[in-house]
Amino acid sequence: MIVLEFKARVKPAQATAIDDAIRTAQFVRNKALRYWMDSQDVGKYDLSKLCKALAEEFPFAKKLNSMARQASAERAWSSISRFYDNCKKGIKPVGFPRFKKHSRSVEYKTSDGSVVEAPQFYRKSERRLNKANREKSRKYRKGAKPQSGNYHRARNRYARKHLRVSRQRNEWAKSIAYCVIQSNDLVAYVDAKRRAEGRLECERVSTQSASSQVD
Q1: Domain named Probable transposase IS891/IS1136/IS1341: which ranges (predicted)?
Q2: How many domains does one find in the chain?
Q3: Please, which pLDDT band fits residue 6 given cuts at 50, 70 and 90?
């Protein structure tokens, strides 16, 4: 198998647009989470309606693609539903949804509506990470300069476990992106409003053709 790697050089205007989109997606997710915390009987569709209200209230939120806004609200709901499931199953820690301080991505839906569940690499490795962190803390001596060799070895082991989780996430994202590219001839994003207009136009044409056949 031949693997080709390319590096894209982003222009300053493009980098600014990407950063703005990431911050806006983070804003929508945090707003959805706050709305769930402050209200009662909030469901998935209530968060979807909130996206439209945010776009009307904040001009910078309207600049973000509507599909990306909906995806941010759905990610907030996925963390909420995971919290509910953990409470019902008695899983500890329950994982109460938290506000995002640092976001690095913007998510978009596929045209067929397929959803890929995140594998939760950090959650699976959480016990091993906590154990390695405790071992590192036990070997730390306050005020000692430099620290002992045992401390540095424990610190390296702890860092390698975090690096493993980071690499797992990176490789998983690459594999999903590769599957999307291989299974589609063209990859593009369309605003939800335009997609709805196109659907209505197709329905109008099909209705006219059906009526002409009846005549």
Answers
A1: 114-188
A2: 2
A3: low
Question: Among residues 56, 44, 36, 155, which one has the least CA distance to residue 96?
Answer: 36
Three-state SS for 101?
coil
Where is average pLDDT lowest: 13-22, 110-119, 144-153?
A: 110-119
Evaluate whether 192 touches 70 at the Cβ level (below 8 Å): yes
Tell me the helices (H) and strands (E) count for the chain, helix number first.
8, 0
Encode 172-188: b = buried (16+ Cβ within 10 Å), e = exposed.
eeeeeeeeeeeeeeeee
Do 163 and 123 lie in one domain? The reply is yes
> Which pTM value belongs to this model?
0.55
Contact between residue 75 and residue 107 where contact means Cβ atoms under 8 Å apart: yes
Structural domain boundaries enclosing 98: 10-108
Q: How remote is the C-alpha of 137 from its chain's centroid?
A: 32
CA 99 to chain centre: 13
Do 126 and 153 belong to one domain?
Answer: yes
| Co-location of 59 and 137 in the same domain | no
